Amino acid sequence: MDEVHQAQDERTLRNELEKKGYHLFELRRRGLLANLRALVVRGEGQKIPMRSLLIFNQEMAALLRSGLPMLQALELMLGRQREPFFRSVLTDVGDQVRSGEELSRAIESYGTLFPPLYGPTLRAGERSGEMEQVLRRFVRHQKLLLDTRRRVVSALVYPAALVGLSLALIAVMTVYVLPSFTDFFSALDVELPLLTRITMGFSLFVKDNLLFIVAAGVLVVVAASQWGRSQTGRVGLARFKLRIPLLGPIFHRMALSELCRSLSTLLAGGIPLVDSLEVAIRAVGNDYIRARLAPMVDGVREGKSLADTLEKSGVGFEIAIDMVQVGEATGSLDAMLEDASNFLDEEVETRLERVLSLLEPLMMILMGIIVATLLVSVYLPIFSLLGNVKF
Question: Could you tell me if 117 and 141 are in contact, meaning their C-beta atoms sit under 8 angstroms apart?
Fold first, then answer.
C-alpha cells in the first residue's frame, strides 16, 4: 500500500522510516517531477539513448579523474548536454545531489529509465570512493553487451531482408499477376490442372477479400502486441524464443552471458554477492530465464553456493556452472564470471555463423520452390493446350 510522508529530502525520509522498522521498496516524489518519473516507468515518456548515457559516463569519469567534486562535475555535464529529456533528468538529479541525496539514490528514483546495473554500480563507487573506476567499468560492460547484440542483429539483417523481399514477390504475384490470367484461362477450351485451380482459387480469394485480410492482420498484430506487453505475454514470448529451432540455444546463451557479465561487474565493484545477484538477474533480457533465475537469490541468501543454485535453476550450462564453481573455490568469482561470459559470447558468434550458413540457402530454396510453384501453375494450362494442338 502506498503511503504519503513528508521530509526535507529522500535520504532523511528513508532514514526515518527505516528507524521505524519499515522495509522500503520504493519512494516517489509528489508533483511535476514525480509525474515525469511515473511516465518514464510506465513507458509513456521518452527514453535516454544508450549512446548518450555511455558518453555521459565517459566524460563524467574523465572529470572525476581530474579531481573535480561530483556536484561540480554534474553541473558541467548538465551544461554540455543538448538532449532535452536527458537534460531535464540531469537537472533533477543535480538538485537531489545538491540537497544531500546520494547520486545512486537519485538515479534509482527514476526506476527503469536507467539500466538496472547503473544505480548499484554508482552505489559501489560511493562506498569505495572509486567512482571513476566504477564508471569506466560500467561503460565497458555496456559496450560489450551492445556489441554482442549488434553482431547478432547485423547477422540476421540479410536473412530477414531476403524473407521480406520473397514474401513481397509472392504477394504481388498472388494479388495482381495470377488474377490477370483468369479471363485468359476462361477463354481456353481446356480443363485446368488441379494445381492451377488451387492457386487461382486462392489468388482470387485473397484479391476479393484483401481489405478484410489486412484488417484481420492488423487486429492480430495489435492484440499480440498488447498481450506481449503483459507479464504473462512477455514470459510466453521469451519462452517461445528459446524453443525456436537453431536460434533458441543462441538466445539462451545470450541471456546467461548477460547474467555472468553483469554479476562480474557488480562483484568487481565491491557489492555483496546477494545484492549483486539480485540486480544481475533483473538485467537479464529474457523474461522466462529471469523468472527461472529469481529463486537463486533466496538460495544464496540461505548459504548455498552460486554454482549449486545456478545448476538447480535449470538454465545454466555445465561448463558455465563448472567455471562458477572454480571461481567460488579460488576466491576469484568475478574473474571467472567474466571468463564464462566471454566463452558464451564466443559460442553465440560461432553458432550464429553456423546457423546463417545453413539458413540462407534453405530460405532461398524454400522461396524458390514457392515462386516456381506459382509460375508452373500459370503455365501448365498453356502447355496442356499446346499438347492438344495438331499440326
Answer: yes
